[in-house]
Amino acid sequence: MFELLFHHPLVAFTKGKLIFLSSMPGWLFALLAVAGSALLAYLAFRNGAPRLAHRWIPVWLLQTAMFALVLALLWQPALSLSTLKPQQNVVALVFDDSRSMAVEDHGGSRIEALKKAASDQFINKLKSKFQVRLYRLSGSLEPLGSTAELKAEGSATHFAPALRLLAAESASLPIGAVVLFSDGGDNAGGVDLRTMTEIRSRKLPVHTVGFGSETMPKDLEITGVQLPWRALPDSRLQALVKYRQRGWSGAKTKLIVRHGDKILSSREITLGKDGVERLEPIIFQSGNAGVRNIQVTLEPLSGEANTANNSLTRVLSVENRTPRILYIEGEPKWEFKFIRRAAEEDPTLQLTTMLRTTQNKIYRQGIRNPKELEEGFPSKLEELFDYQGLVIGGVEAGYFSATQVELIRQFADRRGGGILFLAGRGGLSDGGFAKSGLAELLPVTLPDRKQTFVRDPATVELTPVGRDSLITRIEEDPEKNFERWKKLPYLANYQDVGLPKPGAVVLAEASVPGRGKLPLLVTQNYGAGRTAVLATAGTWRWQMVQPLEDKSHEMFWQQLLRWLVADTRGRVSVSAPERVLQDDGALKIAARVKDMNYLPCGDAAVEAHIVGPEGLSAVVDLHPDAAEPGGYSAEWFAPRPGGYAVEVIARRGEQELGRDAFAFRREDGVAENFRQEQNRELLEKLAEQSGGRYWKPEQLDRLVKEIEYSEAGLTVRETKELWNMPAIFLLLLGLRASEWLLRRRWGAV
Amino acid sequence: MRPRVFVFTAVVLVSLVGLALAFQRGGRSMFRDDDDGPLALPPDANEKTEWAFARLRYPQYRGEGLGRWWAARGHWTVDYPKADRTFVQGVRRLTRIHARSVEQVVDLDSDEIYNWPWIYAVEVGHWQLTDAQCKKLRDYLLRGGFLMTDDFHGTFEWEVFTASMSRVFPDRPIVDIEDSDAIFHVLYDLDKRVQVPGIYPLMRGMTYEYDGVEPRWRGIYDDKGRIMVAICHNMDLGDAWEWADHPEYPEHYASLAYRIGINYIIYAMTH
Q1: Could you read off the pLDDT of A164-216 as tens digits, one per residue?
Q2: Are B144 and A543 inside 8 Å of each other by CB?
């Protein structure tokens, strides 16, 4: 119908450019249009106003429209567009042959629907205008003889490499368009920017043809799991599990975290609304040192067709290290004793303490040798940076020399250590911190006055952020935990630490009768490290006043101390964007290397030692990144599925600067079990961004026409005149008829 | 019996009992004017501090016969409050502990004891704890509390002490504290420990009472090797604190008593 009225398909109008073939200047058109409109207004007003009153205006508008249309036709409007040269261009038909295409919906499998849509008739129709090449897409892109060869047995779908390959081929082959037949189940989750840029730079339109139901009738699927990728032994960790379901809204199932056959944690959840992605947290213990394949599972429900998408595996490296924390306390106090006792219960932490027992004596505990801290608080970088965490409790600011203050600052900023400030009659504002260089480190703006430390009771309440924090998680359930904190015995004392700084996070507040709420536990990131303040020295009552079996005091302190040091790295810190590689073994390894003074080191020799399945081992050199001082990276390909361990070692000359390790896993054929409904959003986005269109299988007969108007491949520029379109004639007729009908209705004819 | 004989017999008996009691504690009545007398409260008595000298009030041993009449207020009050307050002055002067000038009396009948993680019990050779008190003391110690006992002597008082203490910790032995233990080195190195005598035996030229010739520093440890109960047997640190300012009490005993007491407090606040 459209072509009958407009002589050309819609795509010609969307892709073509409107031009005027007449040599008459544009300004003349505008001048005549204005002049004609004015003349028509005068005539309509003079002739129509006495009889038609204000109705002369519609008459004038209709006449003006007609005049403008005729005037435009005199300027000879036309479309200028590119079309593919017949039989000189290639159209690449890419068929998704992955396992998800075997899913049966709409009464048959997707692959069967694909074969039906890409019939010989369709292909022959294409061949009448273009050269046609067929490709199979699963793990990689392979040439295909005919659609009959498609089996839907591929273990993975990766659009990006396939499209990049076609874009590269288009440099030597006149590819006019790509038609992708798929359910959109790309295992990488989409097409990256680099690929899209390549396609767009070659103006290669990708038309997508979507198969499969856009909503699965009954399915429960884990769509993502956020989990720290390394942790200290026996740490409390939280996995954030994203899931989506259809058909079981309001039903209950179990969320389970496993390592091998061992269940680390489980809890019952109530499923949310159909099709809406939800987030469920679950807490578990990291366990002993080593690599953990943490499997998160939603227990399958009866009648669920695809249960393979109910589980996801993540790799967790539980580090075999014992971070050292230095705690300096200004005077004997019960808090000191009970912090030590809590830390002693945690084999992962090594707490070294120095306590000023008298005016001139310091009592040291947890030292490695008699020489350690013999001279008092460290004044040398190598001494202080030997620790990963620092606790400063009840020591006046003046106790530290200017050198030590700067070292403490660098400890957080450069070393990446954690610093915790504790309350005390000699600490924080009462100890002159507000006017010292240490004030900058604090996550709060201290009040500039004395007597802020008060030995009066105060109760504790978690803030909304504190509810979700693992530092303050005594009970696994957030609501129970919130209530649990409310019921903790009152603190023996508290200190006014002022207001939190921008960017700081208040996890807990102290409720003081007559004073309202005061920040109690505040944390912030500082440089490469982190700092916190706990505005009390009275949590020891939680231990003394509560039953012996109650572990809230120990848990809180262990979690706070672990938070202090868990992310404090050594001189070498390694990372990888992905720890689970889905069907593709491409791995990027990045490392940041610091010298002995913890400054970025750009002249180190950095190599990664990789151990993989079936005795595989490799050594990969990492090369300096120009963009990041001290940054090194390398790319490597993991050839086989399974678990891999990587240790990165940095040396400068003969001296080893440090080493760091991580683990990753390659999984083949797993991703295909996920997101089995048609990912129309991805297909539409891919088509739209490349200049193509998304098609339903039943619309394919229009696709051939659409492909003709491509700007890729070998094209010819055509000019298509528009004056002879039936639509123009009908419009002219319509304008005159409308005017006549109006006049007749008003009795003016 | 005729009335005159009865009166004579009664007078003789009362005199003998009085004499026996006087000699039992080495002529203690000679110092009654200074010992246990009312003391004026210091002006900072109500100051809120980190630590206070917490003195344990306990029930009296019931099998003592006439002995129970010797300390009418109970044996837990011996040297109270002068020893406590004199010792605290030393704690304040010699350490950075924020210490209250006056003592705190606690018992095992209320939960108030949990607010005082260091307690001192004197004359524990005369205590007799109930089952509920034993349980509370066990809870208190396992949660992190610390008990220092002092001023009990000889075999009989040891047995009275252990009769209750063995009900507090039936499964934990009382052992001699090694010289290398941190409690003897946490602040002062107490390498040479000698018997610290009470003032009364000292005035009779003795350093021990009853058959308690050998001073013993003993303890009960928790599962982590930390001392929960520090037992000073056959010595009288309380007297040494109390009479530290008495010209007849030797300075070296008083100094040692202060060092031991301070070490025990610092230990309790660090372990």
Answers
A1: 888 888 778 888 889 999 998 887 767 888 888 888 888 888 999 999 988 87
A2: yes
Instruction: Flag if A357 and B187 touch (Cβ within 8 Å).
Output: yes
C-beta separation of A157 from A96 below 8 A: yes
The per-residue pLDDT for range B98-114, each reduced to its tens digit, is 999 999 999 999 999 99
Specify the 3-state DSSP secondary structure of A686. Answer: helix
Residue type present at position A575: S
Note the pLDDT of residue B33.
Answer: 42
Assess A365–B contact: CB distance below 8 Å, yes or no.
Answer: yes
B 128-167 residues inside an 8 A Cβ radius of A: 139-140, 142-145
Q: Which residue of A has its CA nearest to B92?
A: A358
Nearest CA in chain A to B145: A544
CA A567 to chain centre: 21
Mutate which of B47, B136, B270 to disrupt the A interface (most A C-beta within 10 Å)? B270
All residues of chain B having their beta carbon less than 8 Å from the beta carbon of residue A344 are 224
CA distance A569 to A565: 8
* Binding-face residues of B in 14-73 toward A, CB within 8 A: 48-51
> How many percent of chain B have pLDDT more than 70?
83
Count helices and strands in chain A by DSSP H and E runs: 18, 40
The tens digit of pLDDT for each residue in A87-138 reads 888 899 999 998 888 888 777 889 999 999 999 888 998 898 888 999 998 7
| Contact assessment for residue A148 and residue A114, using Cβ atoms and an 8 Å cutoff | no
Query: Is the minimum CB–CB distance between B249 and chain A shorter than 8 Å?
Result: no
Digit-coded pLDDT (tens) for A458-484: 999 999 999 999 999 999 888 999 999
CA distance A21 to A23: 6
pLDDT digit string, tens, across residues A591-642:
999 999 999 999 999 999 999 999 999 999 999 999 899 999 999 999 999 9
Average confidence (pLDDT) over A294-300 = 96
Cα–Cα nearest to A643, from A621, A616, A606, A673: A616
DSSP structural state of residue B51? B
Contacts of A548 in chain B (CB under 8 A): 139, 142-143
ipTM of the complex, rounded to two decimals: 0.89
**CA dihedral of A714, A720, A726, A727, whole degrees rounded to 10:** 90
Tens-place pLDDT, residues A374-383: 999 999 999 9
CA closest to B111 among chain A residues: A545
pLDDT of residue B20: 46
The yes-or-no verdict on residue A721 having pLDDT over 70 is yes
Give the residue from A360, A544, A545, A557 with the most B CB atoms within 10 Å of its CB, the best one to mutate: A544
Task: From residue A402, give the alpha-carbon distance in Å to each of A378, A383, A408.
Answer: 12, 16, 10
**CA neighbours within 13 Å on the CB side: how many for A49?**
7
Query: Is residue B32 predicted with pLDDT exceeding 50?
Result: no
Q: Which residue of B97, B143, B188 to mutate against A (max A Cβ within 10 Å)?
A: B143
For residues A186 and A584, is the Cβ–Cβ distance under 8 A? Answer: no
Q: Average pLDDT, stretch B124-149?
A: 98
Interchain contact A364–B (C-beta under 8 A):
no
Reported as type and span, the H/E element at residue A113 is helix A110-117
Using the beta-carbon criterion (under 8 Å), do B143 and A361 form an inter-chain contact? no
Q: Report the pLDDT averaged over residues B223-238.
A: 98
User: How buried is residue B73: exposed, middle or buried, by Cβ count under 10 Å (0-12/13-18/19+)?
Assistant: exposed
Residues 6+ apart with CB under 8 A from A437: A402, A405, A406, A409
CA dihedral A381, A387, A388, A390 (to 10 degrees): -90
